[in-house]
Predict the 3D structure of the following.
Amino acid sequence: MLRVPRPPAERSAPARPVRARPALFLAALAALAVGVWACWSVTVDDAYITYRYTANLANGFGPTWNPGADPVEGYTNFLWMLWHVPWVWLGVPLPVVSKLTAATCAAAIVGILATEPRTRTGAALAVGAFVLFLPTWVHVDGGLETAPFALVVLRAVVVAARLLRDRDATVRSWELPALFLVAGMLRPDGILAVAPPLAVWAWLRRRDHRTWTALIVAAAIGGAYTAWRWSYFGHPLPNTFYVKVGVEAATDGRWIRTTLALLLPLLLLAVAGLFRRSTAPVVAVALASCVALYAIPALTAPAMDYLSRFAWHGFPVLCLAAARTIDAVGRRRLAAVGAAVAVGWTSVAGFLQPDGPTMVNYGEDLRRVHIAIGLGLADTDVPADRRTVAMTDAGAIPYFSGWRATDYIGLNDERIGHGASPTDVLLADEPTVLVATGPTPGLQTTSWNTDLPTAVGDRELVAVLRARPAYYQQVYADRDIADQVRTAIERRGAEADAVTDGRFDQTYSRWAQRLLGLSG
């Protein structure tokens, strides 16, 4: 029987080369640049924790919280911390380094999202949702490893997706193992996020001896890094894990509900892609990475998840997965409507998040309170052996002061992280300055499981600084140094007030008026 060959359109063909979309790419970059400019003042307090470890390492003390003390791993972003070391030597402000590095990574994400989808509609969805999303602007400027980490995860998914579309695609044998290592050294949960793409690559290229060579090398490097960490810090996991999961965890579903509301159209489109043969493999690996990323925050409802930071780690991957589903929609008008709804929903939802107004004004509030306290302490003539401070917001205050610091939340204190009473730790350390955080100017009875009246003792109240309507920092100092601490903090506070907007309301109007140079 004569076999009739299939028409060319019916034959399986290798993946088409991606076409450049310069107009879309440039427009997206322009939108991203405006957002980054608008949120440039935002550097989150947590970023200064990393900067303190960086500064200590750059100055020869090793990656430690307090030089000379037992080292504690209070950061979870080793490579990000390490990246900033040369800039300390060069004298470049570390927040500027972080922002420019993250902006470059975000631009690279835009490049991927603009080129990987097969249709212009899919690409418009991916880049539109990404660059018009308020959390994108804040997390690029926030000073943490969020954008570089998201780029690494996205790149891993893209490499695996190319192999799933075309088994003969050119893929460097070392790339996915390298991305696996980089992701794990940027964040511990990075190994979970990159594991699905790595598994796909390893299976599809299992007959290539270079695959196993690359895996063995990566395992050796990762094992050596883990062994060094464990021996240096004395624990298998970062100290922050024991605090955030062991102390702050709350499995009440809040994180899941917030993330579903925020990303609903993208999630629905991505899941829909599982039911089409042409998109299912690619979307499956993307969703597997997102599930791996989201499992820990979904189960622990982590604190310090401002503007859904932990959901944003997988946000570019979801944008790409949704775009791939839109690519497969045959009716272009329907695809355009779906893309417009996804972009519109995501953009509006980003601004509707309860902590959105707080975060866009965060930099101003941090500058006139936390940074002012830190700089004020640095200005004093307190002898070096008495330069000890305790606080809950363990970022800008210890970084700018340079004082030996007790973090009585425990993120940077192994004693508290492993069960010691914060009150007992403060009584043992006897800091000369204690900063108490509270919703009102008066001293709270307890804060972060700490008996504050007992911990404060007979120290003198020298300053009360207001960051937000219900967020105060109260500074208590030993009586013999109280006057100079008060004078120094008042001076730094006045300097900050002179260059900030002088407002406390957490509103978008305050943010917009400041950007436009208008008075309140």
Notes: Confidence is low (pLDDT under 50) at residues 1-17. The longest strand covers residues 460-468. DSSP finds 25 helices and seven strands in the chain.
